[in-house]
Amino acid sequence: MHKTSTIKTCPLCGQVFDKIKIIVNDKTIPVILRGACPSDKEKLIEFYEKLSTETIYTRFFSIVRYFEPYVEKILNNPAYVVVAERADTGEIIGVAEAIPAEDQTKAEAGIVVLEKFQGRGLGTKIAYTLNKALQENGVKYVYGYIMPENTKAYKLVKKLGGRIKSYYESMLLVEIPVRDIE
After folding, report:
1. Is the pLDDT of residue 100 over 70?
2. DSSP class per residue in 139-161
3. Tally of domains within the chain
4. Using CA atoms, how far apart are residues 123 and 60, in angstroms rounded to an integer?
5. Is 84 helix (H, G, I), strand (E, B) or coil?
6. 10 secondary structure, DSSP code
7. What pLDDT sits at residue 6?
8. Averaged pLDDT, 91-100
9. Which residues pair with 95 in a beta bridge?
10. Which residue, among 132, 154, 165, 162, has the nearest Cα to 58 in the 3D structure?
């Protein structure tokens, strides 16, 4: 018998977590970190379509060309999704999502930021925001898969207090405790 999840679809929808500023090419860009909603579908598809082939491969471990099924999956299933949205244009520039495991105390997580906004602390800020939302919803651990050569992801895992749980030929399984982060 299939167990029904007690988590509603898009549980973070409508929540504004933070307003930050990042600097890109000497310009200050206002960014809102908020929960994704079903109405974000087209903006999320646009976001994923703007990613470079390398970033897509690093995030999904394959070359994905059609993102609608993935976006529908994270918006129509119980998943915690935080978006980084430019306050001046409404463009989504980063996404962190966590899909709960059956026992709902663990979740598989992933983070991706548009290339021109990488290296500015945005991925870290999105990760911290997702961590806080997960903590408030009873999730104890997140896990994810990263490529061994993805040093940015590994540094973020370490910064969040995570560790490598298993080594595979072309990927690492990492686990991060969901806890208070300063």
Report:
1. yes
2. --EEEEEE-TT-HHHHHHHHHTT
3. 1
4. 16
5. strand
6. S
7. 53
8. 95
9. 83, 112
10. 154
